[in-house]
Design goal:
6-stranded parallel β-sheet, 8 strands, globular
């Protein structure tokens, strides 16, 4: 797997099918997103790609409430490769990046730089300045810019939505086995 810091590297292979997110823990829900990206990339002759952020956005925007991470960046990159992702793009998340409008990010980075054919988000993911970007905005903008976008359904275990926050809670409660099941 290829790792890039930033989106301007000339060696990034295009076109892409991509997803974006923090992807801490790469739990079963994240794994379904990666599987979707890999399968769709094969179907449309593109490169399965992940955009992730370092540090965690809350560590920059709300440091007092920043969550403890479930894995290091190196562990995440290794796991993405195991899941079939061929390139990961790590964007340094800082105050300046947080002020980029969602539509500008989609136009300048997703469409123009990465030549995305398709983009997939997990349920409830927000992006862009003040979290203005969501699946509805992504679908609307993608139609204008000429790429497909969709939301991957959430994964549940015992009726509970699997998410990094829930896994952190389980670990704090000492419920390691259930957390491990959610992490796959």
């Amino acid at each position: 797997m290829k790792l890039f810091h930033g989106t301007e590297n000339a060696e990034i292979v295009r076109p892409t099918v991509l997803t974006l997110g923090v992807y801490d823990g790469l739990h079963l829900g994240h794994q379904l997103i990666m599987k979707t990206v890999v399968e769709r990339a094969r179907a449309v002759s593109a490169v399965p790609t992940v955009i992730t952020f370092e540090p965690h956005p809350r560590a920059v925007l709300h440091p007092a409430s920043a969550p403890p991470l479930l894995q290091t960046l190196d562990q995440k990159i290794e796991a993405l490769g195991v899941l079939g992702i061929e390139q990961a793009i790590v964007i340094h998340f800082d105050q300046a990046f947080s002020e980029i409008r969602a539509e500008v990010f989609l136009r300048n980075i997703v469409r123009e730089r990465l030549q995305a054919k398709e983009v997939y988000l997990g349920r409830g993911f927000f992006f862009g300045h003040n979290r203005e970007g969501n699946i509805d905005l992504l679908r609307s903008v993608s139609q204008r810019l000429g790429f497909f976008a969709d939301e991957v359904p959430e994964v549940r275990l015992r009726g509970t939505r699997i998410g990094s926050t829930r896994i952190r809670e389980l670990l704090q409660q000492g419920r390691v086995n259930l957390a491990r099941r959610m992490l796959g």
